[in-house]
Amino acid sequence: MHIVVLESEPSTKRGGQELSLFDVCRGLSQRGHKVSLIYAIDGNLLKQYREFCTCVLQVKGYSISRDKPLTSTFDLLTDSWQAWRKLPKVANTIIYINQYQDSLFGSVLALVRKVPLVCHLRQPRPPVIGWQRSITMKNIQQFIAVSNQTKLDWLKSGVQKNAIDVVYNGIDLETFKPTENLANLRQAWNIASDSRVISYIGRLDKVKGLETLIKAFELLSNSNPSLKLLLAGKPVCHTSPEAGQKYEVSLKQLVMDLNLQKYVHFLGHVAEPVPLYQLSDVTVLPSLNPEPFGRTIIESMACGTPVVASRIGGMPEILTGEFKDGLSQPGDTSNLAATLQGKLNWRRQDPSLSQRCREHIYHTFSLNKMVTGVEQSLLKVI
Predict the structure, then answer these.
(1) Which of 84, 96, 137, 220 lies 20 to 30 Å from 58 when distance is taken between CA atoms?
(2) Does pTM surpass 0.85?
(3) Are 121 and 292 in contact (CB under 8 A)?
(4) Which homologous superfamily is 182-364 in?
């Protein structure tokens, strides 16, 4: 099988969507399938893609711009033609897009090559899809949703039930694992052994509920003077870089207004998050909008660190069984504080929780299961 993958920006700095696609592509390549990549913007994963991809091509974009409709249409058709010429002529080829927004370019390429088009649904269904995608999404033969809730959301757009497979995200358990020496790790990060550490790892965006988290932390810090809150990430999904910077400044101002400067630390983008998961007592994903999945949840739990997340979107499908007590009401400051408080002292009160977290991920959210699920969905359309 030859999988032609569309990824706008192959980068670790955007979020779990890009990381999960990279893991899928590398896993499929290791199973003997050919993978080719078409991208628009250079990213820090590009070098690693080149290590296993049969062909790597850059294009100007995947859609028609409202500002420059004629130019962008010409570029799209030209790039599609060039891709058709340069891509290997291999039997059993599939066009595989990582988000519905890329369905126009994917459709054109699939029609030119006369091959199937598959779309991974990693985002919530938007209120308005837009005419470009509404038309071109009809050319998609198979969808892959990252959770049952995501599948339910997209069924409302008219997609047939049997056209959507659910494949949970998975991670490499050799990469994400507990530390062998917590004391040394915390010392390296200049964190006292008696501190309690809450961490958030993700984009600094309004929908992530960071204001709720900071206010909940204030409630907790009143009775936990050794508590620390570490915020790792940069603004990404904003109308402009300036808007993103303005939002980050507003978060820092909120910290100052609450007099929490000594306890709340902004780390910026953390390229290697594993040590941060390992040294934390709990990680938190306080999203206000439905997260289709929540990759940071399984990354943290694979490292042996429990998670608190909003009871919304696909996150309740991860925090099941005994881990349901880590779910909180989105936007509810008091409820988030209480839920976090219940997790802070597990190292002393329930030390085996770390192993149970990891076992939960091993059984349901392994990298091998994800790659197998995607592989089966792709083979269905061959």
Answers:
(1) 137
(2) yes
(3) yes
(4) Glycogen Phosphorylase B; (3.40.50.2000)
309 contacts: CB under 8 Å, gap ≥ 6: 284, 285, 286, 287, 291, 294, 297, 315, 318, 319, 326, 327, 328
Reference 2, options 109, 92, 81, 77; nearest CA is 92
The half-sphere exposure of 189 on its side-chain side, counting CA atoms within 13 A, is 22
171 beta partners: 366
pLDDT of 74 reads 84
Which whole-number Å values give the CA distances from 337 to 172, 208, 312, 348, in the listed order?
31, 16, 17, 20
| Tokens standing for residue 230 | 């570490």
Residues of CATH 3.40.50.2000 domain(s) within the chain? 2-170+366-380, 182-364
Q: What percent of the chain has pLDDT above 90?
A: 73
What values do phi and psi take at 162, rounded to 5?
A: -75, 0
Average pLDDT rounded to a whole number, residues 308-334: 97
Whether 319 contacts 307, CB under 8 Å: yes
Rg of the chain over CA atoms, in angstroms? 22
